[in-house]
Structures are given as structure tokens and as C-alpha cells.
From TrEMBL, chain A:
This is Phosphate ABC transporter ATP-binding protein. Keywords: ATP-binding, Nucleotide-binding, Phosphate transport, Transport. One of its GO terms (cellular component) is membrane. Residues 5-246 form the ABC transporter domain. Pfam families: ABC_tran. The keyword DNA repair does not apply. The keyword Nucleotide-binding applies.
TrEMBL record, chain B:
The keyword rRNA processing does not apply. Belongs to the binding-protein-dependent transport system permease family. CysTW subfamily. GO terms for cellular component: plasma membrane. Residues 60-285 form the ABC transmembrane type-1 domain. It is found in: Cell membrane. It is a multi-pass membrane protein. This is Phosphate transport system permease protein PstA.
Length: 251, 298
């Protein structure tokens, strides 16, 4: 199994406070890697460094390396815009633009310079199909995305992210604001998406990690305590802190 | 209810009455005195040479042209400044702090000072310099004299703070999640500002523009030395011409007319036109602001 992303001794500091302490992790290609741990353990921070989104927040500093296909994404000649085209992101709260459904999905292509209407239309359709949303919205592509339900908005955000044909999808608790039915649909979607994309999923739900991930990593207070194939981590965790967390002792 | 409460209630009721009475007195007077003078003729004709009859058409045109030029010149600069302050300046940047302080000071400068500044800078420095460089052979000054252009630019400087402050506020209200969504899709900062931030802040920016317009349309002092004329019955066709202005025309009618008593009805008529004009603009600002707030919540 080849590693799509590797982090080496990755630490982040907010002002002087360390949020991540020397995380080394290998993320396999076309698999779902789940990051679990109590809130504030640094899993979202970790996720945001993988496409250099942390640079948008002031006062955040990073040490260590992140390799995407063997190339250090923090190297001076690397443009964060290029990194983000390869490493897409879906956020905790669905955040569609106040534009039409079509324009939401087409946004990434338009900013990349695509003008051909036929190309845009084909890609919007394919992306909405990939996000299992096409059948629900095909007759109202030009209505506002804000009219959609919460679950539909989140799947729209997935469609928008895959439209730029990234190689990796980062998902920051994508189902945490959704009802159980919408959650189930997002989870099914993640499982189908891993055929084409490498997925890194932050989740606070251990059931969710167990249901859909192939590899799971447990973070605690900014440290990576344990990483293993999902079943192994849940059935026979080696570290005492992982065992306690899984038994619901804390967090 | 105790005595303190009752007293306070009485006082605030009284204060309300005073405010309402003042508004009624002003409007009542203007409407009663001015409505008689108001006619179709007044809106479409130029004033007679003694100002007491005819209309105020050149002044309406001058006010509109001056305000329009002011907007065209000032708004892009104001929006660009706000974009810099809100998006590009580092949080604790000394330069940005200095710019913000300058904007606040600019907002507090009395408008007559802007008038003198306009005369000294635009007319005498910029205008004379252009004449010296390009119109050395002209018999009379071409740019180096009071003109519609200089008045508009002076007003643009005067209204810059309103545009900057409202635009910066509107840009800061754009939700962080929308910016992040844009960046995560591989957009650059410039694209994000152009495609997400400014469209989302549009209603707020428009509010600033309308506030600037309604302030600029009513100001007289800044145009006093920079372009306005007592009596210029033809419509200006060039930005280098002088122009008439409603606000200034009120002053001229009330103090400079050959027969002030005969011009009395015209004064109130002109005031009424000016009031209606600024009210319409203020109402538009209020509507836009309400829409802007609704827009950010949905």
C-alpha cells in the first residue's frame, strides 16, 4: 500500500502554545484514514496543515514536513494554491456560496480558468453524481444553494470539492451537524469516494470511524498516541490511553 | 412606580416632544412656504437674471453632475482602501493603524477646511500645474480655475471616510467559512476577494455609497471656492466649467438676490427640492442597509 501523504515530526504552534507535537503519520492512497480523539486534541489542526489552510489563521506556525506524493508541500517553491487544488476540503459546517447550485460546483473550475460552457456543464453533472446529489437537484441547478437542506448542502460541498479533481479529500467532521439519515448518506458517499480519492476524516464519532475507515489514528493532547488498521485499533488497542478512550473513560 | 421613574419618563417624553416639534417646525415651514413656488416650470427652467422667477434646473443638474462625478472618483479609492485594510494589512500593522487614524481624523475635519484644501491643492496646485505643462499659450486658465471637476474631487475626499468605514465593516462581516471554502478550492486571495468577498459585501458597500452621496449632495462649503457659481443659467457641458448647486443656490437666493423679498418663495422651493433629494437618498441607504443585514444572516 503506497502512502499518499506522509507527515514527519509535524508540530504546530498557536503563538507559543503547541497544538500538535511531532506527529508522524502515513496516509495510504485510496483509503479512508480516520482521526479520532477528544475535542481539542489537535485533529482539526492536523487536517488543516495538510492543505496549508492553517496559513489563513494568523499566529500559526508549523515545523516538520508534510509530503504529498513524496514532495514537501512546505518547500519554498510550492504554491499553496496548487496544494489546495490537489488536496480538497469539506468543512464541519456546510458552507455553500450564496450562489446557484450550478455556480457552487463550477466555482473551483472557474477560478482555475475554465470558460467552456460544455466542459463546465459536464463536470458539474459528474461531480453532483459523484456526490449522490444529481437526482435531487438536476431540475433546479440554477436555484440558490441555500434552499437545499443541511444534508444536501453538505453533499453539495462534497461535489464542489471533487469538481476540481483533487487527489485527496480532507473532511472535518462532515456529518456532525446532520441528522442520522443525512449522516448515513454522507458515510455511504465517503465509502464510494475512496475508490478515487484518498480521504482523511476527522470525526468525534467512534462508531463512524469504525464503520467507514480503513485506518484510524488516535490523537490526544496534540500527540499521536496510536495508529493502526481500524479493526485492530478498536478491537485490540495497544496503548493504555487508547484503551481508556475507547472504553469512554475520558473525552 | 417611584418618583424617579416617573420623573425620568416625563423628561424623556418632553425630549421626544422637542425633537418632534423641531422636525415639524422645519418641515412645516418649508412645505408651507415652498409648495407654492414648486411647479413644473421651476424644475425645468433656468433662473431669471434677478433670481426671483424662473427655475432651478441648472442647480439641479449641477448638484446631480457634481455628486455623480464625486461618486465615480471617490468610491473606487474608498473601496480599494477598505479592501487593503480588511484583507491585506497584517493585523497589528502600524501602517494600517495609521491609515485608520487618518480616516477618522478626515471624518472629523470641518467641511470648510476641505473647501480651502480643494482650492489650494486641486485648483491652484494640480490645475495650475496642468496649465503650466500643457496650456502654456492659453489666454486664460484652462484647468487652473474653479470648476465642476475640482468641486467633485474635493467632495470625493470629504466622503472618502464614510465609504472606507462602511466598506471595511461590510468586508469583515463576510463569514470566514465562505473565504475558507474559496481558498480550499484553489482560489487565490485576489480571486477570493473578487468572487466571494466583494459580492457578499455588496449591499454594505452600496449603503456606504448612498450615505456618501447623501452627504456629498448637501455639502456647500467644500464647493464654495472650488467651482460653484452664483449665476450660470446654462447647463455646464465640460468638467472644467463652473456650475450651479442647489445648496449654494439657497444661500445666494437668501442673501445675494437683488430683491431678497421677491425671491423668498424661490428660496423655500429650492430648499424643498434639496430636502426631497437628500431624503430619497437617505431612504435608499436605509433600505440597502436593511437588505445588507438580511443578506448576511441567510
Amino acid at each position: 500500500m503506497t502512502a499518499k501523504i506522509e507527515t514527519r515530526d509535524l508540530s504546530t504552534y498557536y503563538r507559543e502554545k503547541a497544538a500538535l507535537k511531532g506527529v508522524t503519520l502515513s496516509i495510504p492512497e485510496r483509503r479512508v484514514t480516520a482521526l479520532i480523539g477528544p475535542s481539542g486534541c489537535g485533529k482539526s489542526t492536523f487536517l488543516r496543515t495538510l492543505n496549508r489552510m492553517h496559513e489563513l489563521s494568523e499566529g500559526v506556525r508549523v515545523t516538520g514536513q508534510v509530503y504529498l506524493d513524496g514532495e514537501d508541500i512546505f518547500a519554498p517553491h510550492v504554491d499553496p494554491v496548487e496544494v489546495r487544488r490537489k488536496v480538497g476540503m469539506v468543512f464541519q459546517r456546510s458552507n455553500p456560496f450564496p450562489k446557484s447550485i450550478f455556480e457552487n460546483v463550477a466555482y473551483g473550475l472557474r477560478v482555475a480558468g475554465e470558460r467552456d460552457r460544455a466542459v463546465l456543464e459536464r463536470c458539474v453533472r459528474e461531480s453532483l453524481e459523484a456526490a449522490a446529489l444529481w437526482d435531487e437537484v438536476k431540475d433546479r441547478l440554477h436555484e440558490s444553494a441555500l434552499e437545499l437542506s443541511g444534508g444536501q448542502q453538505q453533499r453539495l460541498c462534497v461535489a464542489r470539492a471533487v469538481a476540481v479533481r483533487p487527489e485527496v479529500l480532507l473532511m472535518d467532521e462532515p456529518a456532525s451537524a446532520l441528522d442520522p439519515i443525512a449522516t448515513a448518506r454522507i458515510e455511504e458517499l465517503i465509502v464510494t469516494l475512496k475508490e478515487k480519492y484518498t480521504i482523511v476524516l476527522v470525526t468525534h464519532s467512534m462508531q463512524e470511524a469504525r464503520r467507514i475507515s480503513d485506518q484510524a489514528a488516535f490523537l490526544y493532547l496534540g500527540e499521536m498516541i496510536e495508529v493502526a488498521p481500524t479493526l485492530e485499533l478498536f478491537e485490540s488497542p495497544r496503548e493504555p490511553r487508547t484503551q481508556e478512550y475507547l472504553r469512554g473513560r475520558f473525552g | 412606580m417611584n418618583i424617579g421613574d416617573r420623573g425620568l419618563r416625563l423628561l424623556s417624553g418632553l425630549a421626544l416632544f422637542v425633537v418632534l416639534a423641531a422636525i415639524l417646525a422645519i418641515f412645516g415651514l418649508v412645505v408651507v412656504e415652498g409648495a407654492g413656488a414648486l411647479s413644473w416650470r421651476m424644475l425645468v427652467e433656468a433662473p431669471s437674471s434677478d433670481l426671483a422667477t424662473g427655475g432651478v434646473m441648472p442647480a439641479i443638474y449641477g448638484t446631480a453632475a457634481c455628486t455623480l462625478l464625486m461618486t465615480v472618483a471617490g468610491v473606487p479609492v474608498g473601496v480599494a482602501t477598505a479592501v487593503y485594510l480588511a484583507e491585506y494589512a497584517p493585523r497589528r500593522s502600524r501602517f494600517a493603524t495609521a491609515v485608520r487614524a487618518a480616516v477618522r481624523i478626515l471624518a472629523g475635519v470641518p467641511s470648510i477646511v476641505f473647501g480651502l484644501f480643494g482650492l489650494g491643492f486641486f485648483v491652484l496646485f494640480v490645475g495650475k500645474s496642468i496649465d503650466g505643462l500643457f496650456y502654456r499659450d492659453a489666454a486664460s486658465p484652462v484647468f487652473g480655475r474653479p470648476a465642476l471637476l475640482w468641486s467633485s474631487l474635493t467632495l470625493a475626499v470629504l466622503t472618502l471616510p464614510v465609504v472606507i468605514v462602511t466598506t471595511e465593516e461590510a468586508i469583515r462581516r463576510v463569514p470566514r467559512e465562505l473565504r475558507e471554502a474559496s481558498y480550499a478550492l484553489g482560489a487565490t486571495q485576489l480571486t477570493t476577494i473578487g468572487r466571494v468577498v466583494l459580492p457578499h459585501a455588496r449591499a454594505g458597500i452600496l449603503t456606504g455609497v448612498v450615505l456618501a452621496v447623501s452627504r456629498g449632495a448637501g455639502e456647500v462649503a467644500p464647493i464654495l471656492f472650488t467651482g460653484v457659481a452664483n449665476y450660470l443659467p446654462r447647463i455646464p457641458t465640460d468638467v472644467r466649467d463652473g456650475f450651479m448647486h442647489l445648496g449654494y443656490h439657497v444661500y445666494v437666493l437668501a442673501t445675494q438676490a437683488p430683491d431678497v423679498d421677491r425671491a423668498r418663495a424661490m428660496v423655500f422651493g429650492t430648499v424643498l427640492v434639496l430636502l426631497v433629494l437628500t431624503f430619497v437618498l437617505d431612504a435608499a441607504a436605509l433600505l440597502l442597509r436593511a437588505r445588507a443585514h438580511r443578506g448576511t444572516r441567510s
